[in-house]
Amino acid sequence: MAIDIGISEADRKSIVDGLSHLLADTYVLYLKTHNFHWNVTGPAFRTLHLMFEEQYNELALAVDSIAERIRALGFPAPGTYTTYARLSAIKEEEGVPPANDMIKQLVEGQEAVVRTARSLFPLLDKVSDEPTADLLTQRMQIHEKTAWMLRSLLENQ
What we know:
With 157 residues, this protein is mainly α. The protein is built from 6 helices and no strands. The chain has helices spanning 9-39, 45-72, 81-87, 99-118, 121-127, 130-153. Helix 1 packs antiparallel against helix 4.
């Protein structure tokens, strides 16, 4: 059955293309955060281990929300590592960096997700896609706050 929500198929496809990049960024950041949770060491181990766990749990919920929005717009959500690696602006970490480098990489990842989300707003405004704009606004608030908290760990070092 055809979708008739007041946004053309071409515009929905353009939105989904952007959301697919956001989904990929979010999933790669989830994987990186989970990896760092498992492998962090040093004097701040407990603090970082718990903080990273909170963050990857939040990101796991986020990927579902983003994928469901893609589906609501009438397109399949990407769901493979190969696709995510191609679409994401965030690069995987092959090794186990020191804790401070982990924090820096996660700040950069959080900020990359914000930039990807922000890039969609001109199209969303043009076609009045308030549900997607609402989702992105919520995501941006979470990622900006998380980046701030992570950056705070690097103060006075």
